[in-house]
Design goal:
about 300 residues; alpha+beta; 2 domains; 4-stranded antiparallel β-sheet; globular; Lipoprotein; signal
């Protein structure tokens, strides 16, 4: 009888021991996989073979008011729908696929739909294209001032496209393999894009930096390569992203008041609020906001979106 009583207990202890061993083994395997993925990501960017020795980083600088969109190579880089003067410096390299001709478009009109732009004010609206070499911010080189041609009577709006040659030391895929979304059903696109935004919203709200970095992996690699980040800068960049995600844990605000935006190139898609900003943001207990950009595209032949 004693043997019969002790046997189940021994079996349970044995099963528990095996389960614990399996769990420990799984944790170890997960840690090893994570380390391999991190090492691979570092290698892909840090060991990238640049096509030239001159490492130029291009920027667009602006400082004016109004209802405007700055479009670079078919991508809306920034838009404004707020009162007052808006200034900014946009990194252009992540949207420069290779050296050669690049396009900048500025669409502008007064915030007050009843107002017009006076001829003498046209000169106040311009974008300066500049670059630095080898990530040296102390030496800024001018490329081009994108200013509107003169007008001779008040106008409702201004739209113009300028070009400039960029000399970058890399070559990326860009949107070559991306599908044209402008030909698809907007309602279906909205449903799919919203689902992706909800997933990213949940990931950030959980403070899951690992999943966030995985979702944005290709985007991060493109940025690190195009901005010529060395291993140390890549490390700092990734640590900064992780810290940002953790600081938004539990503070993500509801996804609301948005609409679908297909960028002029037809290949990039996002959700935006009426003021032109992303509806993906956090607001912590101190009232500090952190907004997260999320641009999606779909590779030809695929039915799934991914972060660009």
């Amino acid at each position: 009888m004693k043997h019969k009583l002790y046997l189940p207990l021994i079996a349970l202890l044995f099963i528990g021991s095996c389960t614990q061993a399996k769990e420990e083994q799984q944790v170890k395997q997960d840690q090893q996989l994570q380390q391999k993925q991190q090492a691979k990501q570092k290698q892909e960017a840090s060991h990238y073979k640049y096509t030239g020795k001159i490492k130029r980083t291009y920027f667009a600088s602006y400082n004016f008011s109004g209802h405007f969109d700055v479009i670079f190579n078919g991508v809306i880089m920034t838009r404004n729908r707020k009162d007052g003067v808006t200034s900014g410096i946009e990194d252009l390299n992540p949207y420069i696929a290779k050296k050669g001709l690049q396009k900048v478009t500025l669409m502008l009109r007064p915030l007050d739909a009843k107002s017009k732009i006076a001829p003498e004010d046209v000169k106040n609206y311009f974008i300066d294209i500049v670059y630095t070499e080898d990530n040296d911010p102390s030496a800024v080189h001018k490329v081009k001032r994108c200013s509107f041609p003169a007008v001779y009577k008040p106008v409702d709006s201004l739209v113009y496209t300028w070009t400039f040659d960029a000399d970058v030391a890399y070559e990326l895929t860009g949107f070559t393999n991306s599908s044209d979304l402008s030909k698809e059903d907007p309602k279906q696109l909205l449903a799919e894009v919203l689902e992706y935004y909800k997933h990213v919203h949940e990931v950030i709200n959980k403070g899951d930096a690992k999943d966030y970095l995985q979702l944005y992996q290709k985007s991060r690699e493109r940025e690190m390569i195009s901005m010529y980040m060395d291993e140390q800068k890549q490390k700092e960049y990734l640590q900064k992203l992780e810290k940002r995600i953790l600081s938004s844990k539990g503070f993500m605000q509801p996804l609301e008041d948005y609409r679908l935006l297909i960028h002029p190139n037809g290949k990039l898609i996002s959700l935006i609020k009426p003021d032109g900003t992303s509806p993906l943001y956090s607001k912590d207990s101190e009232g500090k906001w952190k907004r997260y950009g999320l641009d999606l595209h779909r590779v030809k032949g695929s039915h799934k979106f991914e972060v660009y």
